[in-house]
Amino acid sequence: MMEPPGFRGRLLGATLAGGLTGGLAAIALALGGGRAWLARGGWWLAIFAGASVGAFAASRWAANRGERTGALLVGAALLLAAVGIRVESPAEQAQVPRGARATARALLRWSYESPRAVARILPYARDPNPTVREQAVLALGVNRVVSDLERSPADGKSPLTAQLRDSLRAALLTALVDSVETVRAQAGRALWKAPRAFGAQPAAAETLAAILVRALAPGATERLAWLALDAAAGAPHPALKSAAARVAMTTADSDLARAARRAAGRTHR
């Protein structure tokens, strides 16, 4: 017969359950229109606060003073961590980020906010720093505007949304000929994975196919192959399927070969 968990196990379970509850509450808040607050750091505050409540609640199961003190200390530490999480104000958000790390955080945050915030990403697709360009191009393809258009293309009939969609598409098409291959890969993936938002873009498929072919060369970056295969598994395109089939037949990586066969439309293992 299985023994009941000890106090440490119950404390851990209650803490994890509290954190999960906080995360679920954050998701509910996001669905209710609170995505901007969450993107500014509210996610972690909700999770740590929930975990803290769980740890405090577990103290009632303590069999002695030592266990109770331990649970209270865990709860207090998590509460301090939650209090220490800084949620940026809208005024701070409006400031221009300085440095690659701050820029990366800003790009991620803007991608989850209003269409006006998404539009702020556009200039960074031309940044001199290739890492910033790659992150910006990723955000141009994965954001609130594109997500809404993929779910409901009719949203694109709004003049403001249509104008922003056209700007996003133009920036991504420009990124397809970037001098850095990782930027081109992100642009191709963004365009090909959002056909309802951006329409059919054969140039994106051809770019991804070329990246897949080069992925077979010695010393090639495997991450780019995975990016291209992720997009290739979506809408069919002859060049993409052909390149994926070549990868499936050539690569020694079993996981990559399996993904390539799936992208090529071959389901056998």
UniProtKB/TrEMBL annotation:
UniProt entry tagged with the keyword Transmembrane helix: yes
Transmembrane segments: 12-31, 43-63, 70-87
Keyword Membrane: yes
Keyword terms of this UniProt record: Membrane, Transmembrane, Transmembrane helix
Domain of life of the organism encoding this protein: Bacteria
InterPro entries noted in UniProt: ARM-like, ARM-type_fold
Protein name in UniProt: HEAT repeat domain-containing protein
Organism: Eiseniibacteriota bacterium
